[in-house]
Amino acid sequence: MSAKPNLLSGMQPSASSLHLGNYLGALVNWVRMQEDFNAFYVIVDLHAITVPQDPNELRANTRRTAAQYIAAGIDPSKSALFVQSHVPAHAELAWVLNCITGFGEASRMTQFKDKSQKAGTDSASVGLFTYPILQAADILLYQPKAVPVGEDQRQHLELTRDLAERFNSRFGQTFTIPEAHILKETAKIYDLQNPTAKMSKSAADPKGLVNMMDDDATIAKKIKSAVTDTEGSIKSDWENKPGVSNLLSIHSSLSGESVISLEERFSGAGYGVLKAEVAEVVISAIGPIRDRANDLMSDQAELDRLLASGAEKAKTVANQTLAAVYDRVGFIKPE
Ligand code: AMP
Ligand code: TRP
What we know:
Helices cover about 55% and strands about 5% of the residues. It has helices at about 20-35, 45-50, 55-70, 90-100, 105, 110-120, 125-130, 130-140, 155-170, 215-225, 240-255, 260-265, 270-300, 300-330; strands at about 5-10, 40-45, 80-85, 145-150, 180. Strand 1 (about 5-10), helix 1 and strand 2 (about 40-45) form a beta-alpha-beta unit. The radius of gyration is 21 Å and the shape is elongated. Bound molecules: adenosine monophosphate and tryptophan.
Protein backbone atom coordinates (compact mmCIF):
# COMPACT_ATOMS: atom_id res chain seq x y z
CA MET A 1 0.00 0.00 0.00
CA SER A 2 1.07 3.59 -0.61
CA ALA A 3 2.48 5.98 1.96
CA LYS A 4 -0.74 7.96 2.23
CA PRO A 5 -2.36 7.79 5.69
CA ASN A 6 -5.22 5.30 6.06
CA LEU A 7 -8.83 6.37 6.33
CA LEU A 8 -11.90 4.31 7.16
CA SER A 9 -15.60 4.94 7.09
CA GLY A 10 -18.69 2.78 7.07
CA MET A 11 -22.26 2.94 5.86
CA GLN A 12 -25.35 0.89 6.63
CA PRO A 13 -26.96 -0.98 3.74
CA SER A 14 -30.33 -0.21 5.27
CA ALA A 15 -32.17 1.49 2.41
CA SER A 16 -32.76 0.74 -1.23
CA SER A 17 -31.54 4.23 -2.09
CA LEU A 18 -29.28 6.85 -0.58
CA HIS A 19 -30.85 10.31 -0.36
CA LEU A 20 -29.56 13.72 -1.28
CA GLY A 21 -28.48 14.37 2.34
CA ASN A 22 -26.26 11.25 2.36
CA TYR A 23 -24.78 12.31 -0.95
CA LEU A 24 -24.01 15.94 -0.08
CA GLY A 25 -23.35 15.37 3.62
CA ALA A 26 -21.10 12.34 3.38
CA LEU A 27 -20.45 10.73 0.02
CA VAL A 28 -19.08 13.81 -1.76
CA ASN A 29 -16.48 14.11 1.00
CA TRP A 30 -15.58 10.45 0.77
CA VAL A 31 -14.99 10.79 -2.95
CA ARG A 32 -12.75 13.79 -2.35
CA MET A 33 -10.83 12.16 0.49
CA GLN A 34 -9.83 9.08 -1.51
CA GLU A 35 -7.25 11.27 -3.28
CA ASP A 36 -5.32 12.11 -0.09
CA PHE A 37 -5.87 8.94 1.88
CA ASN A 38 -5.59 5.24 1.46
CA ALA A 39 -9.31 4.79 1.95
CA PHE A 40 -11.30 1.80 3.24
CA TYR A 41 -15.06 2.09 2.80
CA VAL A 42 -17.08 -0.68 4.41
CA ILE A 43 -20.73 -1.57 3.87
CA VAL A 44 -21.69 -2.72 7.35
CA ASP A 45 -24.02 -5.67 6.86
CA LEU A 46 -23.13 -7.13 10.29
CA HIS A 47 -24.44 -3.91 11.84
CA ALA A 48 -27.57 -4.13 9.69
CA ILE A 49 -28.78 -7.26 11.51
CA THR A 50 -28.71 -5.59 14.96
CA VAL A 51 -32.35 -4.74 14.21
CA PRO A 52 -34.69 -7.23 12.50
CA GLN A 53 -33.99 -7.53 8.76
CA ASP A 54 -35.49 -9.23 5.74
CA PRO A 55 -32.71 -11.42 4.23
CA ASN A 56 -33.61 -10.76 0.59
CA GLU A 57 -33.87 -7.04 1.21
CA LEU A 58 -30.51 -7.01 2.98
CA ARG A 59 -28.87 -8.76 0.01
CA ALA A 60 -30.47 -6.35 -2.46
CA ASN A 61 -29.67 -3.26 -0.38
CA THR A 62 -26.04 -4.31 0.09
CA ARG A 63 -25.53 -4.47 -3.68
CA ARG A 64 -27.56 -1.31 -4.32
CA THR A 65 -25.52 0.60 -1.75
CA ALA A 66 -22.26 -0.56 -3.34
CA ALA A 67 -23.49 0.37 -6.82
CA GLN A 68 -24.46 3.89 -5.70
CA TYR A 69 -21.10 4.50 -4.02
CA ILE A 70 -19.18 3.41 -7.09
CA ALA A 71 -21.50 5.38 -9.38
CA ALA A 72 -21.00 8.50 -7.27
CA GLY A 73 -17.24 8.29 -7.61
CA ILE A 74 -15.77 5.83 -5.11
CA ASP A 75 -13.14 4.31 -7.35
CA PRO A 76 -12.51 0.62 -6.59
CA SER A 77 -9.03 0.89 -8.07
CA LYS A 78 -8.08 3.67 -5.60
CA SER A 79 -10.05 2.70 -2.50
CA ALA A 80 -11.06 -0.58 -0.92
CA LEU A 81 -14.86 -0.72 -1.10
CA PHE A 82 -16.02 -3.92 0.60
CA VAL A 83 -18.70 -5.73 2.55
CA GLN A 84 -18.07 -6.19 6.29
CA SER A 85 -19.14 -9.86 6.42
CA HIS A 86 -16.55 -10.69 3.73
CA VAL A 87 -13.77 -9.86 6.18
CA PRO A 88 -14.15 -12.14 9.23
CA ALA A 89 -11.59 -10.11 11.22
CA HIS A 90 -14.33 -7.55 12.01
CA ALA A 91 -16.36 -10.02 14.07
CA GLU A 92 -13.19 -11.54 15.55
CA LEU A 93 -11.72 -8.26 16.77
CA ALA A 94 -15.14 -7.19 18.05
CA TRP A 95 -15.12 -10.17 20.42
CA VAL A 96 -11.77 -9.18 21.91
CA LEU A 97 -12.92 -5.56 22.29
CA ASN A 98 -16.18 -6.74 23.92
CA CYS A 99 -13.99 -8.25 26.61
CA ILE A 100 -12.23 -4.97 27.46
CA THR A 101 -15.38 -2.81 27.36
CA GLY A 102 -17.17 -2.08 30.62
CA PHE A 103 -20.86 -2.93 30.80
CA GLY A 104 -21.57 0.53 32.20
CA GLU A 105 -19.44 2.14 29.52
CA ALA A 106 -21.46 0.43 26.77
CA SER A 107 -24.71 1.32 28.55
CA ARG A 108 -23.95 5.02 28.19
CA MET A 109 -24.10 4.98 24.38
CA THR A 110 -26.97 7.27 23.42
CA GLN A 111 -27.68 5.63 20.06
CA PHE A 112 -28.41 2.35 21.85
CA LYS A 113 -30.69 4.14 24.29
CA ASP A 114 -32.61 5.78 21.42
CA LYS A 115 -32.87 2.68 19.26
CA SER A 116 -33.72 0.30 22.11
CA GLN A 117 -36.42 2.65 23.33
CA LYS A 118 -37.93 2.56 19.87
CA ALA A 119 -37.77 -1.25 19.73
CA GLY A 120 -38.92 -1.70 23.33
CA THR A 121 -36.17 -2.75 25.76
CA ASP A 122 -37.28 -6.39 25.76
CA SER A 123 -37.01 -6.76 22.01
CA ALA A 124 -33.69 -4.90 21.68
CA SER A 125 -30.93 -7.43 20.91
CA VAL A 126 -27.57 -7.89 22.60
CA GLY A 127 -26.13 -7.21 19.14
CA LEU A 128 -27.66 -3.74 19.21
CA PHE A 129 -26.07 -3.21 22.62
CA THR A 130 -22.59 -4.11 21.38
CA TYR A 131 -23.03 -2.28 18.05
CA PRO A 132 -20.52 0.48 18.94
CA ILE A 133 -17.90 -2.12 19.88
CA LEU A 134 -18.20 -3.76 16.46
CA GLN A 135 -17.85 -0.28 15.00
CA ALA A 136 -14.66 0.21 17.02
CA ALA A 137 -13.35 -3.04 15.52
CA ASP A 138 -14.23 -1.84 11.99
CA ILE A 139 -12.10 1.20 12.59
CA LEU A 140 -9.14 -0.12 14.57
CA LEU A 141 -8.39 -2.99 12.16
CA TYR A 142 -7.25 -0.48 9.52
CA GLN A 143 -5.05 1.77 11.70
CA PRO A 144 -6.73 4.86 10.23
CA LYS A 145 -5.67 8.39 11.01
CA ALA A 146 -9.04 9.80 9.96
CA VAL A 147 -12.62 8.57 10.29
CA PRO A 148 -15.08 10.82 8.42
CA VAL A 149 -18.51 10.59 10.09
CA GLY A 150 -21.55 12.70 10.87
CA GLU A 151 -21.95 14.46 14.22
CA ASP A 152 -24.23 11.64 15.45
CA GLN A 153 -21.24 9.25 15.46
CA ARG A 154 -19.02 11.36 17.72
CA GLN A 155 -19.73 9.29 20.83
CA HIS A 156 -18.88 6.03 19.04
CA LEU A 157 -15.59 7.52 17.91
CA GLU A 158 -14.79 8.54 21.50
CA LEU A 159 -15.45 4.96 22.64
CA THR A 160 -13.21 3.69 19.84
CA ARG A 161 -10.38 5.96 20.98
CA ASP A 162 -10.85 4.90 24.62
CA LEU A 163 -10.74 1.20 23.70
CA ALA A 164 -7.65 1.68 21.53
CA GLU A 165 -5.84 3.50 24.33
CA ARG A 166 -6.90 0.90 26.88
CA PHE A 167 -5.70 -1.99 24.72
CA ASN A 168 -2.41 -0.26 23.93
CA SER A 169 -1.66 0.47 27.57
CA ARG A 170 -2.65 -3.01 28.73
CA PHE A 171 -1.03 -5.10 25.99
CA GLY A 172 1.48 -2.82 24.23
CA GLN A 173 1.27 -0.41 21.29
CA THR A 174 -1.06 -2.06 18.75
CA PHE A 175 -3.63 0.46 17.50
CA THR A 176 -3.36 3.91 15.93
CA ILE A 177 -5.59 6.32 17.86
CA PRO A 178 -8.06 7.52 15.20
CA GLU A 179 -9.32 11.07 14.82
CA ALA A 180 -12.99 11.75 14.15
CA HIS A 181 -13.26 13.90 11.07
CA ILE A 182 -16.71 15.37 11.68
CA LEU A 183 -18.25 16.34 8.36
CA LYS A 184 -19.21 19.99 8.15
CA GLU A 185 -22.69 21.19 9.06
CA THR A 186 -22.81 23.46 6.01
CA ALA A 187 -23.72 20.53 3.82
CA LYS A 188 -26.70 19.57 5.98
CA ILE A 189 -29.79 19.04 3.83
CA TYR A 190 -33.30 19.43 5.20
CA ASP A 191 -36.58 17.68 4.46
CA LEU A 192 -38.46 19.32 1.55
CA GLN A 193 -41.83 18.96 3.30
CA ASN A 194 -40.62 19.74 6.81
CA PRO A 195 -37.59 21.99 6.30
CA THR A 196 -36.64 22.32 9.95
CA ALA A 197 -35.95 18.54 10.12
CA LYS A 198 -32.89 16.88 8.62
CA MET A 199 -33.56 14.99 5.37
CA SER A 200 -33.75 11.39 6.59
CA LYS A 201 -34.82 8.00 5.30
CA SER A 202 -37.28 7.82 8.19
CA ALA A 203 -39.13 10.92 6.95
CA ALA A 204 -42.85 10.96 7.70
CA ASP A 205 -43.66 11.98 4.12
CA PRO A 206 -41.72 10.35 1.26
CA LYS A 207 -42.12 13.56 -0.77
CA GLY A 208 -39.73 15.23 1.69
CA LEU A 209 -36.68 13.35 0.50
CA VAL A 210 -34.94 13.15 -2.85
CA ASN A 211 -33.55 9.67 -3.40
CA MET A 212 -30.47 9.07 -5.49
CA MET A 213 -32.40 6.36 -7.37
CA ASP A 214 -35.48 8.52 -8.10
CA ASP A 215 -36.29 9.07 -11.78
CA ASP A 216 -36.16 12.57 -13.24
CA ALA A 217 -39.92 13.14 -13.15
CA THR A 218 -40.13 12.12 -9.49
CA ILE A 219 -37.27 14.44 -8.54
CA ALA A 220 -38.91 17.36 -10.37
CA LYS A 221 -42.26 16.66 -8.73
CA LYS A 222 -40.79 16.50 -5.22
CA ILE A 223 -38.88 19.75 -5.64
CA LYS A 224 -41.86 21.54 -7.15
CA SER A 225 -43.97 20.57 -4.15
CA ALA A 226 -41.33 21.62 -1.60
CA VAL A 227 -42.71 23.68 1.30
CA THR A 228 -41.70 27.36 1.15
CA ASP A 229 -43.43 30.34 2.78
CA THR A 230 -45.85 33.11 1.87
CA GLU A 231 -43.41 35.99 1.92
CA GLY A 232 -42.37 35.62 -1.69
CA SER A 233 -38.72 36.72 -1.67
CA ILE A 234 -35.79 34.49 -2.59
CA LYS A 235 -33.20 34.86 0.14
CA SER A 236 -31.45 32.65 2.64
CA ASP A 237 -32.89 33.14 6.13
CA TRP A 238 -32.84 29.83 8.03
CA GLU A 239 -34.87 31.18 10.92
CA ASN A 240 -37.81 32.59 8.99
CA LYS A 241 -37.51 30.93 5.59
CA PRO A 242 -36.11 27.41 6.11
CA GLY A 243 -37.73 25.97 2.96
CA VAL A 244 -36.31 28.58 0.60
CA SER A 245 -32.95 28.53 2.41
CA ASN A 246 -32.78 24.76 1.94
CA LEU A 247 -33.52 25.04 -1.80
CA LEU A 248 -30.80 27.68 -2.17
CA SER A 249 -28.37 25.52 -0.22
CA ILE A 250 -29.12 22.43 -2.34
CA HIS A 251 -28.62 24.45 -5.52
CA SER A 252 -25.39 25.98 -4.28
CA SER A 253 -23.92 22.68 -3.03
CA LEU A 254 -24.52 21.00 -6.37
CA SER A 255 -23.89 23.85 -8.82
CA GLY A 256 -21.04 25.54 -6.97
CA GLU A 257 -22.72 28.95 -7.43
CA SER A 258 -22.70 30.91 -4.16
CA VAL A 259 -25.94 31.55 -2.28
CA ILE A 260 -25.32 35.31 -2.56
CA SER A 261 -25.03 35.07 -6.31
CA LEU A 262 -28.23 32.98 -6.46
CA GLU A 263 -30.07 35.55 -4.32
CA GLU A 264 -29.02 38.29 -6.73
CA ARG A 265 -29.91 36.34 -9.82
CA PHE A 266 -33.35 35.35 -8.50
CA SER A 267 -34.18 38.72 -6.99
CA GLY A 268 -37.80 39.58 -7.89
CA ALA A 269 -38.52 36.09 -9.26
CA GLY A 270 -41.22 33.76 -7.90
CA TYR A 271 -40.65 30.48 -6.05
CA GLY A 272 -41.78 28.51 -9.13
CA VAL A 273 -38.79 29.82 -11.09
CA LEU A 274 -36.36 28.92 -8.31
CA LYS A 275 -37.85 25.42 -7.94
CA ALA A 276 -37.66 24.76 -11.67
CA GLU A 277 -33.95 25.59 -11.70
CA VAL A 278 -33.21 23.62 -8.51
CA ALA A 279 -34.96 20.62 -10.08
CA GLU A 280 -32.76 20.97 -13.16
CA VAL A 281 -29.58 21.21 -11.10
CA VAL A 282 -30.50 18.18 -8.97
CA ILE A 283 -31.47 16.10 -12.01
CA SER A 284 -28.26 16.90 -13.85
CA ALA A 285 -26.17 15.98 -10.77
CA ILE A 286 -28.03 12.87 -9.69
CA GLY A 287 -29.40 11.51 -12.98
CA PRO A 288 -26.06 10.25 -14.30
CA ILE A 289 -25.19 8.67 -10.94
CA ARG A 290 -28.54 6.86 -10.86
CA ASP A 291 -28.07 5.63 -14.44
CA ARG A 292 -24.54 4.35 -13.72
CA ALA A 293 -25.77 2.63 -10.54
CA ASN A 294 -28.52 0.89 -12.52
CA ASP A 295 -25.94 -0.23 -15.10
CA LEU A 296 -23.74 -1.66 -12.34
CA MET A 297 -26.69 -3.51 -10.83
CA SER A 298 -27.61 -5.03 -14.15
CA ASP A 299 -24.22 -6.81 -14.15
CA GLN A 300 -24.28 -8.42 -10.72
CA ALA A 301 -21.31 -10.70 -11.43
CA GLU A 302 -19.09 -7.71 -12.19
CA LEU A 303 -20.33 -5.83 -9.10
CA ASP A 304 -19.64 -8.87 -6.91
CA ARG A 305 -16.18 -9.17 -8.44
CA LEU A 306 -15.41 -5.54 -7.53
CA LEU A 307 -16.56 -6.19 -3.95
CA ALA A 308 -14.45 -9.35 -3.76
CA SER A 309 -11.35 -7.45 -4.80
CA GLY A 310 -12.14 -4.74 -2.22
CA ALA A 311 -12.40 -7.45 0.45
CA GLU A 312 -9.02 -8.90 -0.58
CA LYS A 313 -7.36 -5.49 -0.15
CA ALA A 314 -9.09 -5.03 3.20
CA LYS A 315 -8.07 -8.48 4.47
CA THR A 316 -4.38 -7.82 3.90
CA VAL A 317 -4.48 -4.98 6.41
CA ALA A 318 -7.15 -6.32 8.77
CA ASN A 319 -5.57 -9.76 9.21
CA GLN A 320 -2.25 -8.23 10.12
CA THR A 321 -3.83 -6.16 12.91
CA LEU A 322 -5.88 -9.10 14.13
CA ALA A 323 -2.82 -11.38 14.26
CA ALA A 324 -1.00 -8.84 16.44
CA VAL A 325 -4.04 -8.54 18.74
CA TYR A 326 -4.46 -12.33 19.09
CA ASP A 327 -0.79 -12.69 19.94
CA ARG A 328 -0.79 -9.85 22.50
CA VAL A 329 -3.83 -11.12 24.40
CA GLY A 330 -2.19 -14.53 24.75
CA PHE A 331 -3.78 -16.74 22.10
CA ILE A 332 -1.39 -19.37 20.74
CA LYS A 333 -0.92 -19.57 16.98
CA PRO A 334 -2.60 -22.53 15.26
CA GLU A 335 -0.23 -25.09 13.74
P1 AMP B 1 -27.61 7.89 7.89
O1 AMP B 1 -28.09 7.16 6.68
O2 AMP B 1 -28.63 8.82 8.49
O3 AMP B 1 -26.95 6.99 8.91
O4 AMP B 1 -26.45 8.86 7.38
C1 AMP B 1 -25.29 8.42 6.73
C2 AMP B 1 -24.38 9.60 6.49
O5 AMP B 1 -25.06 10.63 5.74
C3 AMP B 1 -23.89 10.28 7.77
O6 AMP B 1 -22.52 10.58 7.63
C4 AMP B 1 -24.70 11.56 7.87
O7 AMP B 1 -23.96 12.60 8.45
C5 AMP B 1 -25.02 11.88 6.42
N1 AMP B 1 -26.37 12.49 6.37
C6 AMP B 1 -27.53 11.86 6.61
N2 AMP B 1 -28.56 12.71 6.46
C7 AMP B 1 -28.03 13.91 6.12
C8 AMP B 1 -28.59 15.19 5.82
N3 AMP B 1 -29.91 15.42 5.84
N4 AMP B 1 -27.74 16.19 5.50
C9 AMP B 1 -26.42 15.97 5.48
N5 AMP B 1 -25.84 14.81 5.74
C10 AMP B 1 -26.62 13.77 6.06
N1 TRP C 1 -22.55 3.54 12.84
C1 TRP C 1 -22.34 4.17 11.55
C2 TRP C 1 -23.63 4.87 11.11
O1 TRP C 1 -24.71 4.53 11.58
C3 TRP C 1 -21.92 3.16 10.51
C4 TRP C 1 -20.58 2.57 10.80
C5 TRP C 1 -20.32 1.26 11.15
C6 TRP C 1 -19.34 3.23 10.74
N2 TRP C 1 -18.99 1.10 11.29
C7 TRP C 1 -18.35 2.26 11.06
C8 TRP C 1 -18.98 4.55 10.46
C9 TRP C 1 -16.99 2.59 11.11
C10 TRP C 1 -17.62 4.87 10.52
C11 TRP C 1 -16.66 3.92 10.84
O2 TRP C 1 -23.57 5.75 10.27
